Amino acid sequence: MRIPFFVSTQQVSRLIAITHEWEGTPFSPHGALKGAGVDCVNYPALVYQELGFLPDYKFPPYTMDGGAHLAKSAVIEWVEASGKFDLVSGAPQPGDLLLFKVGRNVEHHCGLLIQSNVFTHCLFRRAVCVDAFTGWRRQFTRAYRPMMEEA
């Protein structure tokens, strides 16, 4: 049986603490190093890795402008192929992976919900930051919940 990875307040507290450690890390295309550089795709994966949810991950090749010209989202394809996430049908909860349509065509930006109306993400040409989810509601398209096998 599968259950959500973030089932306890301790896990959510760890999530918040780890995301705060990443704050200010500058945007760097394909970057994956806390404090040095990261992009919006690697950032959530690395946080999940620090929390023990994703022991290893490898995204398919992607470009920074994929949202402007691709017909399908590489992020959605990877998330769904991983088998580690469930599409959220109701309101997102802390720990969920949020996807946003920032380009013209497909979801190409992602972040992590850390509180009911607060999420963290890495903005193109900026840095990892915390934002109000309501400010991004128009671009939001879907959320995926990290799932694990019940012990």
Question: Secondary-structure map with pairings?
Answer:
Elements: E1 2-4, H1 9-22, E2 32-33, E3 37-38, H2 42-50, H3 66-69, H4 74-82, E4 85-87, E5 97-100, E6 109-115, E7 118-122, E8 128-132, E9 140-149
Antiparallel strand pairs: 1-9, 2-3, 4-9, 5-6, 5-9, 6-7, 7-8
Write up what this structure looks like:
- The chain has 151 residues and is an alpha+beta fold.
- The protein has one domain: Alpha-Beta Complex (endopeptidase fold (from Nostoc punctiforme)), CATH 3.90.1720.10.
- It has four helices and nine strands.
- Strands 1, 4, 5, 6, 7, 8 and 9 form a seven-stranded antiparallel β-sheet that branches. A two-stranded antiparallel sheet has the order 2-3.
- Helix 1 packs across helix 2.
- The protein is globular and about 40 Å long.
- 30% of the residues are buried.
- The mean pLDDT is 88.
Provide a quick synopsis of the model:
The protein is of the alpha+beta class and 151 residues long. Helices cover 24% and strands 27% of the residues.
The level-1 CATH class: Alpha Beta
Helix proportion: 10-25%
| Morphology | globular
Distance between the termini: 9 Å
Structural class: alpha+beta
Number of domains: 1
The CATH topology name reads: endopeptidase fold (from Nostoc punctiforme)
Helix-strand pattern, N to C? EHEEHHHEEEEEE
List its traits.
seven-stranded antiparallel beta sheet; 9 strands; alpha+beta; globular; about 150 residues; endopeptidase fold (from Nostoc punctiforme); 4 helices; two-stranded antiparallel sheet
